[in-house]
Amino acid sequence: MRLRRGARPAAHHPHPATSGTPTVLTGATVVLPTGTSENGRLTIDGTRIAATTPENAQVIDVTDHYVIPGFVDLHNHGGGGASFTSGSVDDILKGIHTHRLHGTTTLVASTVTGDMDSLTHRAGLLSELAEQGEIAGVHFEGPFISPCRKGAHSEALLRDPHPAEVRKLIDAARGRAKMLTLATELPGGLDSVRLLADHGVIAAIGHTDATYEQTVEAIDAGATVATHLFNAMPPLGHRSPGPIAALLEDDRVTVELINDGTHLHPAALQLAFHHAGADRVAFITDAMDAAGFGDGRYWLGPLEVEVADGVARLVEDGTIAGSTLTLDRAFKRAVTVDGLSVEDAVTALSATPARLLGMADTIGSLEPGKDADLLILDSAYELKGVMRRGEWVVGPQLG
């Protein structure tokens, strides 16, 4: 919830009406799973990408632009001044729309640490939005995390990951729980990982003080994601390598990275890509309310946050408190600052998270039969169009 001062929210872009007429985008550099196609074409028929172009298709010339898949965000707490943890349904929809305007066509809504009653209530509300197709599911970040690595979570509300309480959150999400972040070294951690794996929920290692050996044990038990690798965990050491080494070296693990220039030094990002590769890296926002909204004071769960120059920190001690990142900025930084190829950036922002969510048959790449979730970027990697399920969220701005 907004407290005071800061920029007003940007006006929502109109949703151009769709006529039902098939559309073909021509002349673009199209990033496909099989490689990049220069002077390519892509046809949209209804809500899907089509294999052939009907004779009545509307042609849009996007020469000198890129067409790439819509972004998939695994870890997002809010935006547009709205929180997914505490906001109303209208607030949550506003936050979702804010991120859609920045190219995120699929989003998992993340909670922060709270008491069990509030978390189960929130899980029920978010599951309804998942059932309506507004979000891809629910991610619980906390309360089962280490007080040594709590980050922007309330220490008073932390608890050990007892499997019965983990199960309570899973049940409250009514089949829409996608991921739960926990410190697997805590009492009950390994049993909770096994429970999550048995229920098809991603067990993510994060906000952890685990050793290398404890992390290996958790991966063997079924953990498959590193929550914002490097952040809220012990640093890599040459005698005590800690969780970072274990998470990077194991092909079963996908590592989240927050590529905003604040959470990670470029060398750390390069280290992750060198060891894991784009197929095991998922760029996330870890965004809070201020994303797409502006500097000012906010709440993150029960904790007050000051956002200044786009960086969110707890008022009480200056700890980084999520981000104000949007994935279009993460993409541009990956290519222009970090030196990644467009193809690798697309993989880390679309294909890898889609696969992790078990949704690769419908999203994450531009292939016939998949949802028409796509973005248009200019030669400077600025976002110029957003389509979600065949509808323009941001109509092509090609002038």
TrEMBL record:
One Pfam family matching this protein: Amidohydro_1
Database matches in InterPro entries: Amidohydro-rel, GlcNAc_6-P_deAcase, Metal-dep_hydrolase_composite, Metal_Hydrolase
Family: Belongs to the metallo-dependent hydrolases superfamily. NagA family.
Lineage: Bacteria, Bacillati, Actinomycetota, Actinomycetes, Kitasatosporales
Residue ranges of every copy of the Amidohydrolase-related domain listed in the record: 66-393
Name this protein carries in UniProt: N-acetylglucosamine-6-phosphate deacetylase
GO terms, molecular function: N-acetylglucosamine-6-phosphate deacetylase activity
UniProt KW DNA repair keyword: no
